[in-house]
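Design a sequence for this backbone.
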């Protein structure tokens, strides 16, 4: 069974496709909005602040790169807890990037004609046609800049996906049939290797999530990698006390067998 990510622009039909797949495959569906709500609840971060930060353009993040990383890792940690259950349909515009490196993920890109999206926005948000167009263009531009700044990619590049479906050419039911069929292919079945990558990524993100829960370490711009329970911390911090605190928090995360600190004291620090 594949983990399915559906990348979609606002009002491009992602929710409808996800609900169709959930009913047909018996998989739980999780939206970006639900993911952010759970992350905000689990980590004590304002949902408005979290959503705004994740959609913010580069000038915001250039001022606080550590917090950017903490928020992204916290969101990824929550998503991976859902993924570890083995069945999930996630619809949000960068789900495939949050789960990069996991081969068993079926990466779907859903697009729709502008008229389709305008009508959907007008109905859902009770907007005028002009306001709906302005809203869609604003969101698309912000998300494109965010993905390029954070991941260095164009999220609309079709080479990032396993299949691109156009709701102007196929119905939601037709798209649902295609994705459901593809989810059964051997290419997207979990393997021992993909499962290990999932567990390692999940553990590294849980360590980062623990750092994000602590106000003193929330803005720590460090690297965390995991390999079979062995965690390595690297990067520059402000003092030896910082190194001790980060190492202690990492060692207390469930699933961590050992911690190797390669942290150094330097200027690259954002507390």
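Sequence:
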């Amino acid at each position: 069974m594949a983990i399915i990510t559906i990348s979609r622009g606002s009002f491009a039909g992602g929710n409808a496709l996800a609900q169709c797949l959930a009913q047909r495959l018996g998989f739980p569906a999780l939206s970006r909005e639900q993911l952010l709500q759970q992350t905000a609840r689990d980590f004590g971060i304002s949902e408005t602040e979290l959503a705004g930060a994740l959609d913010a353009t580069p000038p915001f993040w250039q001022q606080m790169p550590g917090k950017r990383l903490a928020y992204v890792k916290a969101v990824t940690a929550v998503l991976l807890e859902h993924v570890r259950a083995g069945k999930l349909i996630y619809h949000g515009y960068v789900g495939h990037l949050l789960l990069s490196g996991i081969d068993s993920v079926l990466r779907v890109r859903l697009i729709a004609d502008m008229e389709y999206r305008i009508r959907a926005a007008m109905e859902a948000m009770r907007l005028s046609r002009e306001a709906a167009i302005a809203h869609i263009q604003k969101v698309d531009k912000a998300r494109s800049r965010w993905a390029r700044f954070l991941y260095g990619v164009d999220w609309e590049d079709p080479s990032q996906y396993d299949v691109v479906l156009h709701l102007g050419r196929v119905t939601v039911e037709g798209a649902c049939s295609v994705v459901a069929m593809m989810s059964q292919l051997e290419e997207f079945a979990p393997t021992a290797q993909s499962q290990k990558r999932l567990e390692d990524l999940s553990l590294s993100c849980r360590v980062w999530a623990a750092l994000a829960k602590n106000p003193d370490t929330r803005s720590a711009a460090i690297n965390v990698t995991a390999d079979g329970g062995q965690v390595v911390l690297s990067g520059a911090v402000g003092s030896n006390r910082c190194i001790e605190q980060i190492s202690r928090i990492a060692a207390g995360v469930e699933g961590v067998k050992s911690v190797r600190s390669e942290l150094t004291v330097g200027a690259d620090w954002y507390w």
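Residues 211 and 217 are 5 Å apart (CA to CA).
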